Amino acid sequence: MTSADYTEDGITNPILNEEEPLLGPNGSVTQNDTTPIYHNFLTGTAVVAQAGIWVLFAVIWSAVFSHDLIFFTAHPLLNSTALLLQVQAILVLQPTSTPRQKSVGTYIHSALLTLSLAGFISAFVVIELNKDSEHRLSSIHGVLGFITYILIIIQALVGVAQFWVPKWVFGSVENGKKIYKYHRVFGYVLLVLELAAVAAATQTTYNISVLNIALWAVLVTSVLILLGVGARVKLSKFGF
């Protein structure tokens, strides 16, 4: 048995030696030709990321529904749902390797991120309608969230351009492909920013006085998400 034999679920999982990281080397999970795409949601360290995002999602939703619902409560509900969808979009695409897998994975990735974008935009609209001009951008969470919303929209536009209309925007399909590595890197940066915005939200007046979501809960689940996602990153895909 070699260090890259296939496991029963059809995923390449190199056997670790004593000197390798506990979560395995970066990008060690690769989808087999015969493995269904939905396996990507749970293979390798995806289970760690899934544990983190679902616990974070449950913490936020349980806190919100433990109190009377108001117009503003749609903001954390929509944001947490959008973040959940974004993590799924990342996980499904990471292990793909063949052209067919990448194509199918990208369509699913695109669909999930479209829903995620709708959630983020809706959450932004809610907060804009709820806040008066005097209290806009008056907290770290508000400023970080606003910047992150803008970057999410830019990232979405670049993703649409490079995959759906590369000739029209970049002049050719090949030029569009050259943007992929930056799109990937920026996607991971965005995930960190979004989790940072969630952490900052625990210090807002509304959370302190009403929801009482603990900062440590957000930090622990965020670490799980980043570890689970980060351990599956294939550095070769960045093309630097």
From TrEMBL:
Lineage of source species: Eukaryota, Fungi, Dikarya, Ascomycota, Pezizomycotina
Name of the featured protein: Cytochrome b561 domain-containing protein
Sequence intervals crossing the membrane: 41-64, 70-93, 105-127, 139-165, 185-202, 208-231
Sorted UniProt keywords: Electron transport, Heme, Iron, Membrane, Metal-binding, Transmembrane, Transmembrane helix, Transport
Signal sequence region: none
GO CC terms: membrane
Annotated Pfam families: Cytochrom_B561
PROSITE patterns for this protein: CYTOCHROME_B561
